[in-house]
Design a protein that fits this description.
The complex is a heterodimer of chains A (114) and B (418). Chain A is built from two helices and six strands. Chain A is an alpha+beta fold and 114 residues long. Chain A has one domain: Alpha-Beta Plaits, CATH 3.30.70.1060. The two termini of chain A are 16 Å apart. In chain A, 21% of the residues are buried. Chain B has 418 residues and is mainly alpha-helical. Classes of the chains: A alpha+beta (114), B mainly alpha (418).
């Protein structure tokens, strides 16, 4: 089994603004049910984390920009690590990810251990 | 309490105390002597009490006899006295002056020290469970062999090897320090958890023995909670879990040791006292800032003590299973999670998820799919139940599954009728 990084991306503009507690709870449930399903197949290495929208981007010559670019379509929301025999099977695991409900996508990348 | 019940009762409660105090006094090299003295004390009690009747204070009598036997032993065996006198904390070499301290405090300290010795990670888990049963619960080789469904020689060798290992590793019988407690409490809890499960999930038909295993595990867990240094949230969570589970002990087993499924249990047989205790310890457990698998399993067990099936109940159980699986995968958690998923989100979703789990050589997996397909696709349900029937070894389970196949056949026939 190899480890694969799942990177969840979406456009922040697609996310509900000021969600109600009920909406937040429903979102949490969708993610927990989905990731719990991967764990139940014994294919989860690390549940990962979600990222806070605001951040900084450091460029050459110490130029600091406010980032990430929340105005761009594909912003990283979070990540998880799954284990699978092949990239095909890892991609299969990504199916049903709640990110699709907010117009996002999942990038699946094999981790090369260094 | 009648005399016939009193000796086994005292044996359960006092044997470990005497052994612990003597082991701590003698050191790890002489555990067997401590065991012999404790056993001889009880042997004498059963002989004398039968003839002369009960002493006024049976426990005090046992302690006094154990003390005298220890002194006699030291006196008689001067060679031994010399060899262990090095291990004794007292400077005196004269055996009569050796203080055999059976005070409540020293009994408690000694038992706590012994739990940490017995659960020392230098031995494999099954050896540690065996040692706990032998030294702390006073179980004989026969009983342990029965509980593990194996023969006496296997257990005898396992215990000998484990005791030898403790000696060669020079494990000290002493009160663990605060930092040692933090490091080693998890392995102690794991052993108590396994000991409990051995009784709760064992396929042994001996219900009394199985109950005993569970209650012994609970007594040892309670000992940890009684001690300030080990009264940690994780230990409370474990004891809470044990209370909730054992509250259903009488409801989940028939007279013949057959398992009665949760939904078919007579809820009036659930032990409310144990449920209340479980709630108390769960409350104590929630005072920490870390969550363990014991917390999650106690939470799941708590929701199972609520009789009515509500959306809320199964949603909570599902989320607790999700979290549990994120901490640690186990096939049984994966199967139970899928059952909760069916209850919370519906069978359709659960069937898709169940088929992904793919534990095809596990009878519980096919049993679950049989359950999920019932009323959805009864023909498929029957196929899965038949596979489950072929995979299971327990007679009780075979009967349960056969009955379910019959029910599914009836349903299919009724649907087939115009």
């Amino acid at each position: 089994m190899k480890d694969f990084l799942l990177i969840y991306r979406t456009d922040y503009n697609n996310m509900p603004k000021n969600p109600s507690p009920e909406q937040m709870q429903a979102t949490t449930k969708r993610w927990m049910d989905w990731i719990g399903g991967i764990a139940a197949q014994n294919h989860l290495t690390d549940r990962g984390n979600s990222l806070i929208p605001s951040g900084k981007v450091l460029k050459a010559d110490n130029v600091i920009a406010d980032g990430p670019y929340t105005e761009i379509k594909e912003c990283i929301l979070g990540y998880s690590i799954v284990k699978a025999d092949s990239i095909e099977n890892a991609t299969e695991l990504a199916k049903g990810c709640p990110i699709f409900a907010v117009g996002g996508n999942v990038e699946v990348r094999e981790i090369r251990v260094i | 309490m009648k005399q016939a019940e009193l000796i086994p009762h005292l044996f359960r409660t006092e044997y470990r105390k005497i052994v612990s105090v003597l082991c701590k006094l003698f050191g790890i090299d002489h555990i067997e002597i401590a065991e012999d003295i404790a056993s001889d004390t009880f042997l004498l009690a059963s002989e004398l009490w039968g003839l002369k009747g009960l002493p006024e204070n049976p426990t005090a009598w046992l302690y006094l006899v154990a003390k005298n036997k220890t002194r006699d032993y030291l006196k008689r065996n001067s060679l031994f006295a010399q060899s262990i006198s090095k291990d004794l904390k007292h400077n005196s070499t004269i055996s009569e002056e050796i203080e055999i301290d059976l005070s409540v405090k020293n009994i408690n300290d000694s038992q706590l020290a012994m739990i940490f010795v017995v659960c020392h990670p230098c031995n494999p888990a099954e050896a540690r469970i065996g040692l706990a049963l032998n030294l702390l619960c006073g179980f004989g080789i026969d009983e342990i062999a029965n509980a593990f469904l194996t023969n006496k020689e296997v257990i005898y060798k396992r215990l000998q090897r484990a005791k030898e290992k403790l000696r060669t590793e020079k494990i000290k019988i002493e009160q663990p320090t605060l930092s040692e407690i933090d490091d080693r409490l998890p392995t102690v809890l794991m052993i108590l958890y396994l000991l409990f499960n051995e009784g709760y999930y064992s396929s042994s038909q001996d219900i009394t023995l199985r109950k005993d295993l569970c209650f012994e595990a609970m007594r040892l867990a309670y000992l940890l909670i009684e001690n300030e240094q080990t009264n940690k949230p994780f230990a409370n969570a474990l004891l809470s879990l044990m209370c909730f589970h054992s509250s259903r002990f009488d409801a989940r087993l028939s007279q013949n040791g057959e398992t009665i499924l949760y939904q078919d249990q007579d809820t009036s047989l659930w032990d409310q006292g144990l449920i209340t205790k479980g709630e108390y310890f769960l409350d104590q457990a929630s005072r920490g800032n870390k969550i363990s698998k014991y917390h999650l399993e106690a939470g799941i067990a708590y929701w199972h003590t609520i009789r009515t099936d509500t959306k809320e109940k199964w949603e909570n159980i599902l989320q607790l299973y999700n979290q549990l699986l994120l901490i640690e995968y186990s096939p049984i958690a994966a199967l139970n999670r899928t059952y909760a998923l069916a209850k919370a989100n519906g069978k359709k979703e659960a069937i898709i998820e169940a088929e992904k789990i793919n534990l095809t050589d596990n009878h519980l997996y096919h049993s679950l799919l049989g359950d999920l397909y019932t009323d959805v696709d009864n023909a498929k349900a029957i196929l899965h139940l038949q596979t489950a029937l072929a995979l299971t070894r327990s007679t009780a389970d075979k009967m349960l599954i056969s009955n379910r196949i019959l029910e599914c056949r009836k349903k299919e026939q009724q649907l087939g009728k115009p």
